[in-house]
Amino acid sequence: MERAQAAALVSTGLGLVVLGLKFGAWWLTGSLALYSDALESIVNVVAAATAFVALRVAAQPADQDHPYGHHKAEYFSAVIEGALIVVAAVLILKDASEAVLAPKPIDMPLLGVAVNGAATVLNGVWAWMLLRRGRAWRSPALIADGRHVMADVVTSVGVLAGVGLTTVTGWLLLDPVIAALVALNILWSGWGMVRDSVNGLMDQAATPEMQEQIRSLISEHGAGALEAHDVRTRHAGQATFIDFHLVVPGEMTVAESHGICDRLEAAIEGALPGAVVTIHVEPGDHAKQRGVPVL
């Protein structure tokens, strides 16, 4: 099993453990805020399972119907997760509005806070690992899952604060009010996740830093060519598609120009894991004098 898929599968298992702890905390206390936190964790489990399925699809090799591979399946996972976060936030706001009208006292608050706190720590550690690995492996699905779990952590911290303040002050209204504020923060997180995923589905270019690195690699490893122009990039999951026109002297043989292309492809793909390079060779009179000069 591919490493990103394994991480998503572990995330699903841990999500079930956290879900059980949070529902246990709600059962002990009867706190609406803790119930809302547990409700958000249901979405978290579904999102992790969705990420696992998306990664399985994205890992499939290119075929006749999908000659460029299935990399974009990860973006669909991220969009679904963002939408689920929005659903969770709306549900929390609904429950919080009802609780504002009829606040209820909290039973066994210390034990409930302890159980929920343990789940929150577990979630926080795993969210940090998911985000770190997702960025290192350039996996939108893992990054989206990590952000989702981190949003759950934010929810839990806000809920714990609400339960604690309600217990100390006796102001029952604090419980649903703080839950509502945390729900608004979750909505913002979900919007950011959907926005990033849509950019990927729309073939957003690589970052300016990566584009500059690509140009430097072309300049350093393109000896024998004259220039490269029309350098284009786009992300698709863990893959980065790179294509450009390489201008070579008109008298150069096909074999010689092909050798330069092989060298460039090896250099770029070696420096940028997941890079897929396509080079179009042109004769010298096609130089634009504004592309990437070859050193």
From TrEMBL:
<dbReference type="InterPro" id="IPR058533">
    <property type="entry name" value="Cation_efflux_TM"/>
</dbReference>
<feature type="domain" description="Cation efflux protein transmembrane">
    <location>
        <begin position="9"/>
        <end position="202"/>
    </location>
</feature>
<dbReference type="Pfam" id="PF01545">
    <property type="entry name" value="Cation_efflux"/>
</dbReference>
<protein>
    <recommendedName>
        <fullName>Protein p34</fullName>
    </recommendedName>
</protein>
<keyword id="KW-1003">Cell membrane</keyword>
<dbReference type="InterPro" id="IPR036837">
    <property type="entry name" value="Cation_efflux_CTD_sf"/>
</dbReference>
<feature type="domain" description="Cation efflux protein cytoplasmic">
    <location>
        <begin position="208"/>
        <end position="283"/>
    </location>
</feature>
<dbReference type="InterPro" id="IPR002524">
    <property type="entry name" value="Cation_efflux"/>
</dbReference>
<dbReference type="InterPro" id="IPR050291">
    <property type="entry name" value="CDF_Transporter"/>
</dbReference>
<dbReference type="InterPro" id="IPR027469">
    <property type="entry name" value="Cation_efflux_TMD_sf"/>
</dbReference>
<dbReference type="GO" id="GO:0006882">
    <property type="term" value="P:intracellular zinc ion homeostasis"/>
</dbReference>
<dbReference type="InterPro" id="IPR027470">
    <property type="entry name" value="Cation_efflux_CTD"/>
</dbReference>
<comment type="similarity">
    <text>Belongs to the cation diffusion facilitator (CDF) transporter (TC 2.A.4) family.</text>
</comment>
<keyword id="KW-1133">Transmembrane helix</keyword>
<dbReference type="GO" id="GO:0015086">
    <property type="term" value="F:cadmium ion transmembrane transporter activity"/>
</dbReference>
<feature type="transmembrane region" description="Helical">
    <location>
        <begin position="151"/>
        <end position="171"/>
    </location>
</feature>
<feature type="transmembrane region" description="Helical">
    <location>
        <begin position="113"/>
        <end position="131"/>
    </location>
</feature>
<dbReference type="Pfam" id="PF16916">
    <property type="entry name" value="ZT_dimer"/>
</dbReference>
<keyword id="KW-0472">Membrane</keyword>
<dbReference type="GO" id="GO:0005886">
    <property type="term" value="C:plasma membrane"/>
</dbReference>
<keyword id="KW-0812">Transmembrane</keyword>
<feature type="transmembrane region" description="Helical">
    <location>
        <begin position="75"/>
        <end position="93"/>
    </location>
</feature>
<feature type="transmembrane region" description="Helical">
    <location>
        <begin position="177"/>
        <end position="194"/>
    </location>
</feature>
<feature type="transmembrane region" description="Helical">
    <location>
        <begin position="7"/>
        <end position="29"/>
    </location>
</feature>
<dbReference type="GO" id="GO:0015093">
    <property type="term" value="F:ferrous iron transmembrane transporter activity"/>
</dbReference>
<feature type="transmembrane region" description="Helical">
    <location>
        <begin position="41"/>
        <end position="59"/>
    </location>
</feature>
<keyword id="KW-0813">Transport</keyword>
<dbReference type="GO" id="GO:0015341">
    <property type="term" value="F:zinc efflux antiporter activity"/>
</dbReference>
